[in-house]
Every structure is written in C-alpha cells, then in structure tokens.
Design brief:
Elements lengths: L1 H10 L3 H36 L13 E3 L4 E6 L2 E2 L8 E2 H13 L3 E2 L2 H10 L3 E2 L2 E6 L4 H14 L3 E5 L14 H9 L3 E5 L6 E5 L5 E5 L1 H7 L8 E2 L16 H22 L6 E3 L12 H14 L2 E6 L3 E2 L8 E3 L8 H12 L13 H4 L1 E5 L1 E5 L2 E5 L5 E6 L8 E7 L6 E8 L6 E7 L2 E8 L2 E9 H4 L7 H18 L4 H15 L25 E8 L2 E6 L2 E8 L7 E7 L16 E11 L10 E4 L4 H38 L1
Parallel strand pairs: 2-7, 3-4, 5-7, 7-8, 8-9, 9-13, 13-14, 14-16
Antiparallel strand pairs: 1-6, 2-15, 10-11, 10-12, 17-20, 18-19, 19-30, 20-29, 21-26, 21-30, 22-23, 22-29, 23-24, 24-25, 26-27, 27-28, 30-31
Length: about 650
C-alpha cells in the first residue's frame, strides 16, 4: 500500500513541473511562429525570383535622338548566387552594374532595333545598351529575371544547341527558352553549335590536339596561350601542319552550322538573329583566310547580325553588323571598373563615377586620380585606363607613428599601395606595396623611389617552391587524368590512368636539387586576398602579411609626419585569353583601420580612421549578412530538393 502511494505520488506532477511544461509549450509556439514567419518570407522571395509580374516596356520612341552615337554592347558569361567563380558574376554585383547604367540614362535595345539601325538608319536612344548573357545557363535565367524586371531591361540569352536534350540541369532546354520569351525580358541568340578547342598545347608545348570543355576545365591551370576555338583554324598536328584538307575543313565547319540551323528550327521554329562567333578577335572570321571565308559564308547566310570581336563596347554605323564588338565584364569588376571602360570607349566626359555609401567613411578620402567607391567595409580604388588611382585621407597630414591594417582584395596582377608620411606633392613617402604577387617596401625621396625590401608572397608565407621539371610533370599527369575521366571507353580510360601513374613516378629535380624554379606568368584574372599590417614608429617599420612577419624593424630615412594615401595601378599587359583589352585595375582595401602607435598596447591606441561599420550600423550589417547566408542556404536546399524530385521522376519513367 505504501509502495502504491509512493508510486501515485511520483506520477503526480508538482506545480513547478506544470509551470515548466507551460513555459516550454509557450516557447515552442513562439519558435514555431517565427519559423513560419521566416519560411513565409523566404518563400515570398523565392516566388519573386521565379515569377515576373510586370512585363518589359520598350524605351519611348521620343528617346531616339540620332545615329551618330551608336550603341554599346555588354556580354556577361552568366550569373550565379555569389560570384565566387572565375566567370559567372554574382547576382548582387550585376544588379549594381546594371543599376549604375540605368542611373546614367542607359536603356536596352533589342535585336530588331539593331537591324533597323543598320538597314534603315533608324535613330537610337542617346544611351543605348545591347545586353547579352552567354552559355545559356539556367541560373542566369532564374537569378537575372528579378534584376531585369526591376530595371526594365531586356537581354539576349545566348545558347549552344549542342546542349539541348542532354538533361544537364546547368543549361536551359528549348521549353525553358520558350518560357523566357513569353516573359518579355529575354530574346534568343546563339554562341554557335558548340564550344570546342583545337590545336591545344600546354605551356610546355605538349600537343593535346582537340579538347572539349570538360577536359579543358581540368587542364586549364597548365594551359598557356597556344589553343584555339574549333571554328578559327584548320585542325593541326603537333608540328602545326593541317591534319585535314581544305575540303574536309569546309565540311567540318559547315556541318556545325547545319546542325545549329536544324536544331533551332526543330526546337524553336526559327534561327536566332544574334550570333556570337567565339574567340574571333581577329578582325575577320578566323585565324586562317580559308577558314574565315567559310565562317563568313555561313554567318551571312544564317544570321542577320554577328558579334565578332571582344574588348571594345561601341558599335556605330561605321561598323559592319557582321563584325560587331562587345566587352565582357568579369565577376570581380567593380561598378566603376565598368563605368571607366565605357567612359573611355564612348568618350563620355559627363560620365559620373559611383561613390558608393556616401557616409563619413567615404567622405574622409579626397580622390586625386581615378575613382573611389565605398562598398560595405571596402574602399575600391579604380584606375584610369593604363593608369593609376589615388586617394588621400583628409586630415592625416600630421600622422607620424601609426599602425595600419587592412585586407587587400585586388587581383594578384596589378599594384595596391599604402603610402605613409606622404608629402603634399607625393614626392616624399614611405610605400608598402603588393604588386604582381610580391611584397615591396620603398621610400620615395624627391620623387625617386628607393627599394628597401622585395620578396615573393609565396616565399613569405612559406609555400614550398616547385621546379619547372616538377610542374611539367604535374601538367602531363593532369592531362592524362582529364582524358581518362572523359574517355570514350574503359580501355582508353585505363590506358590514360596507367600513363598518368607512370609519369607521376618519373623523377623530377626539385628546387632544392638546384633545378630552375617555376614562376607562373601573371594572369590578370587571378584572385588574391591578403591581410596587411604595418607598424610604423620613428625610424623603423615592420610589416606582417597574413600573420607572418615579413619585415621587422627595417631602418628608414623618411621621418617626420605626413598623410596616408592609398594607390592602385594597372601594371601593363598580363596573360589573359579573355578581355584582351582590359586596361583598368581595381585596388580593394577592405576593413581599413588606422591607429596611433605610441608604443603601448595596440588595443588601447586611439583609432584615427576605420572603414568598418560602427555601433548600430555594424549590428544591421551583421544581421544582413546572416540573413543572406540563410537565404542562400534555403535556395540551395530548395534547388537540391527540386533536382531530387526531377531525378526520381526521370528514373520512374
């Protein structure tokens, strides 16, 4: 009986348990409410990303003012969520690019506008823009839709018909293209039948022959300048001798154009009017006169317009509609990089640059040359074409002993410089530079630069150097691995795998053995990001790079006080197979902090300047970044779920 009483007592909840349960239930309801609120908001954003409610409105005919100014053409490779690849631009970045053009009066024109301009001399708007997206990527259509609707812009979606029917989720299918056309913000164009490379050599002159895009992406790190698009030349052997007769070349090229014609007619009911001849920066239609004549024949027969060159944005009545040109903005281009290119292409002296967030952080800098944008926590300093850019921190003329830190995010090729103790005319200064993958410390006295220190960044960071022999071996291994991965049969794959293993086991002298060190040729598209810390006190300077002390208490001649000046500089031609004429550079100085350096604990030193957000602005910035991260996750998982369903349905069929 006593046991029963104890048991009943144990089963009867005490008041505190009831109170705890009620509190827990309330918390759960509140949490569920906010979860539904967040999910509802995310679904709203997702719906906006997939559905357009307002149709495109063409420019007002009253805006058409003449024919002298022509039009500019921009061609983006594609859009992705973040823009962290080497080719596709982030959705927010392209929104800023196009919004800046919209703010400066640019309106989009259509393919028909271009044809009417050349055939009938129809006037165009003062600021006419023909906008293209290449490669026919699905994410471009999804992410670009909202941007186009916001700005009332229309673009041409270029595609490769060879991709149709392959069920590759990265690329648009004909039914998707028809849906895009119905939304009014898109019209169709073509990059040609397929993307393929011929006459490919690696940088050690090993002949690879014909390479498709999948293999090419794998071996890209070892490719130099020696390759071509398959429509540009004869297919040649390792000695440069044609492997095909002129007749076979004509049949090979004609076959692609006929396949393109037939597929578009079958799937869309028409052949797109706008054509882009890939890799045709030749002034004609190929690297070889015979090949050029064949391409020209088919292009004139199938297409009323053709974009034949890249690197210059302006087309006028003096241009041929079969030899139009465009620029291809890269994912790392700032808004002012784009505006700088257009300004000098169009000779538009009225072009205003983008200041960015016009608060005290931006107002603290006097721009002496180039353009400066305040973007979140970064100061983006854009050079003049083939030139420089500089900005002086106002009120810093009396800075002497200071501590400077920033993250430098400009591309590896180019110059980003921090000038300390700079005189009013800039002829005297202490300079710390990141230039073409090297850290340099200079003193400028009377306008003459004296170098105090120079070292490669990879040496500073303790990265093991490789020899030319080791790199050449690695190239051959990767090439065989690439050909094995996409081999036409198991036997061919195994042959390449065996060859890769044998090459990998071949001896190769290292730098430690005395072999020549491999030094990569600068690539203008190579990304870079480094933390730079400068301690300047009296006649000594110390420099840290990515947490490594590169320079310790280096003696100086430049004493006294002077201003802080940021500089960036275009450093001449670098290696690039695209944007051959890009002559603008962006120096990116992120999270800049400048403190006094009295010799005490840095945490307690007075803050002289920061590009960081402070107080409530910093709270809002962090909340925004958190929300963006959550949104990216939600959209990514949603796409995965849709893809899984599609895969399941396909398997079920």
């Amino acid at each position: 009986m006593q046991d029963r009483e104890v048991s009943d007592s144990a089963q009867t909840p005490v008041f505190s348990d009831v109170q705890y349960s009620r509190k827990k239930t309330r918390r759960k309801r509140v949490r569920v409410f906010f979860e539904f609120l967040v999910i509802g908001f995310l679904v709203f954003l997702l719906v906006r990303a997939f559905f357009t409610l307002v149709p495109y409105r063409p420019y007002d005919a009253a805006e058409a003012v003449g024919t002298e100014q022509g039009f500019i053409a921009l061609s983006y490779f594609g859009i992705d969520r973040t823009g962290e690849t080497n080719t596709t631009i982030g959705v927010e970045q392209i929104r800023q690019h196009l919004a800046a053009l919209k703010a400066r009066g640019y309106v989009t024109i259509t393919q028909q506008d271009i044809l009417d301009y050349y055939r009938d001399g129809k006037p165009l708007p003062q600021h006419a823009l023909f906008l293209m997206f290449e490669d026919g990527r699905r994410d471009t259509a999804i992410l670009g839709k909202e941007v186009m609707a916001e700005l009332n812009y229309k673009a041409t979606m270029m595609t490769y018909p060879e991709k149709f029917g392959r069920a590759d989720p990265k690329f648009l299918e004909p039914k998707d293209l028809k849906a895009l056309e119905s939304e009014s913000f898109w019209e169709m164009g073509t990059n040609g039948y397929r993307l393929e490379f011929i006459n490919v050599f690696d940088r050690y002159d090993n002949y690879l022959g014909e390479v498709d895009p999948l293999r090419f992406d794998l071996i890209r790190p070892y490719i130099g300048r020696r390759y071509n698009h398959y429509l540009m030349d004869y297919a040649r052997d390792a000695d440069g001798v044609p492997k095909e007769s002129e007749r076979h070349m004509r049949l090979r090229i004609a076959s692609d154009y006929m396949l393109l014609r037939d597929i578009y007619m079958r799937e869309l009911g028409y052949i797109p009017a706008a054509h882009v001849l890939m890799h045709a920066n030749t002034g004609r239609f190929g690297n070889n006169p015979d090949v050029s004549r064949v391409n020209e024949k088919w292009i004139r027969e199938l297409f009323p317009m053709n974009f034949n060159r890249e690197g210059y944005s302006v087309n006028t009545l003096a241009s041929s509609r079969y030899d139009l040109t465009r620029i291809q903005p890269q994912p790392y281009w700032s808004v002012n990089h784009l505006l700088m290119r257009i300004k000098y292409d169009t000779n538009d002296d009225s072009m205003a640059f983008e200041p960015g967030e016009e608060d005290a952080r931006r107002a603290a800098w006097d721009v002496k040359e180039g353009a400066l944008e305040m973007k979140e926590k970064s100061l983006i300093l854009t050079t003049l074409p083939e030139g420089n850019a500089s900005a002086r921190l106002a009120g810093s003329e009396d800075f002497g002993n200071i501590h400077f830190e920033a993250r430098l995010n400009g591309n590896a090729f180019g110059e980003q410089a921090v000038n300390l103790r700079s005189s009013a005319d800039g002829k005297t200064a202490l300079r710390v530079l990141l230039v073409n993958s090297e850290l340099v410390v200079q003193e400028r006295i009377g306008g003459e630069a004296q170098e105090l220190y120079r070292a490669r960044i990879d040496d500073i960071l303790g990265e093991k150097p490789i020899s030319v022999e080791e790199d050449a071996r690695a190239a051959r291994v990767r090439e065989n691995e690439a050909f094995a991965r996409y081999a036409p049969s198991v036997d061919v794959a195994q042959e390449h795998i065996l060859r890769a293993s044998e090459i990998g086991n071949e001896p190769a002298a290292s730098v430690e053995d005395g072999a020549e060190r491999y030094l990569p040729v600068a690539n203008s598209h190579a990304r870079a990001s480094h933390d730079l810390v400068i301690h300047l006190r009296d006649d000594r300077i110390s420099v840290e790079l990515d947490g490594v002390e590169a320079v310790k208490a280096l003696p100086l001649s430049v004493m006294g006080k002077g201003a802080v000046v940021l500089e960036s500089s275009w450093k001449g031609e670098s290696w690039s197979q695209r944007n051959l004429a890009d002559d603008v550079y962006d120096g990116v100085f992120d999270q800049v902090r400048i403190k006094q350096n009295t010799g005490s604990d840095m945490k307690g030193e007075p803050l002289l300047y920061t590009s960081d957000y402070m107080g409530w602005e910093n709270v809002k910035y962090k909340a925004k970044k958190y929300f963006e991260t959550m949104l990216h996750w939600f959209l990514r998982e949603s796409r995965k779920g849709v893809q899984s369903v599609n895969d399941g349905l396909r398997l079920a069929r």
